[in-house]
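pinging the channel bc i need a second pair of eyes. not urgent but kinda urgent?? the chain im working w is below, pasted from the shared doc
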Amino acid sequence: MLSSLQAFVVSLTYPPTLSAWLLACAGLMLLLRLRRTACATAGLAIAWSLAWSIPRASDWLRGGLESRYPVVAAAALPKADAIVVLGGGHYGWVGRPDIRIEALESSRIAAGARAWFDGRAPVVILSGGGGGRDGTEARTMAAAIAKLDVPASAVLLEERSRSTEDNARYTAALANGRGIRSVLLVTSSLHMPRAMLEFRKAGIDAVPVPVPEKADRSRWRDRWLPSFGALWRSGRAWKEYAALLAAHLHN
């Protein structure tokens, strides 16, 4: 029951879902002849999704999380016992020929590989359970990092996690068993505040290595014209805010 309620609350972080529920409530209000309230609720429902579909609004919302940990060049990172790359990234580039690591600015895998090539840590831990193309996401990540010429001998897999809390808990167990005390934590800039909180709660000395999720804003329409892409990015941000609040309350 609690998990179902939690899933429902999480679903409301996606603006169109909340808008749909508000429109349903507006319909109920009409049946009850509460016309003014129904019109106001319907207007709010439409305005909510429309506002967060504007790229500038979406970027502003995401900036509250992404700005907490600035992006740092691999060469400027401190040395650590291991590099931890969290699942949740995109791997569509794996099948492309002639992949260059420099071109993968928004890839978590590439960020982890760059840190390894720069000698920041001798081991890369890939953390991700669930379903992946090769069995678990960690195995999909392993195939991706191999494409960037990081040897299998330098890679460890954590394949049980299904949440950020799991990432931290199971990575801590793996690290403690191997004497790993400090890690460079790689995930998206948006996800980094929650990831750092969970890893600190798990007792891991983590240094953030945020990966930016860039979007083209060079043209006027890319900044101000509503789009499904901006709406999706806003939904991810609201989900992170909600999950971060839940993690703080669970602390």
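so Residues 74-211 form a domain with the Rossmann fold fold (CATH 3.40.50.620). and The mean pLDDT is 92. — does that match what u expected or am i reading it wrong
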